[in-house]
Amino acid sequence: MAIVLFLRSSFLFIVLILFAGFDLFCQDQADTWIMEMQMPPDQYQNLKRKSAREFDFVPETMSVNGIPLEVKEMHSRGKTTLQFWRKSYSVKLGNSFRFMGSPAKTMDHFYLISMSLDRYYYHNQLAFECLSRLGLFPLWCHLTELKINGATEGLYLIVQRPADYALKELGSDAIIRRKSSEFIAKEKYGKEAGEEIRKKCRNNFNLIRKAGKHWSGAELYDSLNTHLVLDHYFAWLSFNYFVQNGDYTDELFYYLQPGSKSPLFEIIPWDFDDILVKNPHEGEDVRQVRLGDQLLFSSEDELDLLIARDSFLYIRYLEQFDFVFDKLNPGALDDIFGQIKTRLKPYLVQEEIVSVSQHDYRPVENWQAVYDHMDRMLRFLKDRWMKTRVEVKKQLRKYKK
User: Fold this and answer.
1) Which of 3, 18, 46, 297 shows the greatest Cβ crowding within 10 Å of its Cβ?
2) Of 298, 183, 304, 178, which Cα lies nearest the Cα of 247?
3) Angle 251-253-257 from CA coordinates, rounded to 5°
4) Positions of the chain with pLDDT lower than 70, given as ranges
5) What is the pTM of this model?
6) Among 91, 98, 10, 85, which residue's Cα sits nearest to residue 45?
7) Residues whose CB falls within 8 Å of the CB of residue 274, separated by 6 or more in sequence, listed in order
8) What are phi and psi of 381, to 5 degrees?
9) d(Cα 328, Cα 236) in Å, to the nearest integer?
10) Distance CA 214, CA 195 (A)
11) 3-state class (DSSP) for residue 92
12) CA nearest 182: which of 198, 199, 205?
């Protein structure tokens, strides 16, 4: 009897091991996605031309991991990436599709980002993961290889559209993309939003813009905080300083917080191609004149300059660094970089994917080059984390006197 039980237990153990191995194998395969499209050769040639205009088309077929997608509309997108061979796309489906990632996400519209400007394809992923830990990046994303007519187009990032998250998922009435804190670049409203909502949204934006002309100190903080979740804005600003983001003024969405009694903007950060750079876009000399030793990386935006020049606001901004440092401590950075390496490696050990990166702003040499560069940047950020903490404490003592 004991022998029979032992044999049965052993058999069950072996079966469990085999099934566990099968599950892990399937998970590994699922984590390496392939999105495929078929389109006529002449349409493909038109798509690949350098152009300042978006190219509208509907592929003959499209699938992800062999599962068909019904595409209703599709077009190339991105002011800069339109000039590159590997285009980025906006994809609208005829029916909602459940993308089986971790977590899964159901979408009927998404961006397919080429990352042609993204150094070694990890800068946006790094920023998104860091901001997610700060509670500032709620959008779903997943890596995939893209193939058109059977040939690889390289590595892409599927990303949920900010407007879909705000308007559809949260039920917000409005989302705007700012050109700066002075100007609105784009605006989009919910289906039920009438002219009154549009006026309130634009008025709220203008009240933020004008606050510095009427208030200072604690009154200025309170005024701004009634129109914008200021601590989240501070956390985003301090993150940009930490990762040395050279271009972020126009890379921010404001959306109306659902359920708020009066119009209040929450934020969704966007587009982190230019992190880990030496100087901001305006140049170090211009920044130095405007900001001196203050801990903001760029001086392009008027709201950011207001924060720097008002000592009460600047102290509150410096205090927000503690939250960022706590969430992005060296151990957390190790974990984030490790996860991104795990996601990237299955794609970037493939010669075909590496080869088409020759069309990007900075081609990928090989997986080892990516790994080594990420290790250098991890060490750099750990060092910057320690040095910035010291500098923040020093400046808090200075401005609280």
Assistant:
1) 297
2) 298
3) 160
4) 1-30
5) 0.90
6) 85
7) 123, 245, 246, 247, 248, 281
8) -70, -35
9) 13
10) 27
11) strand
12) 205
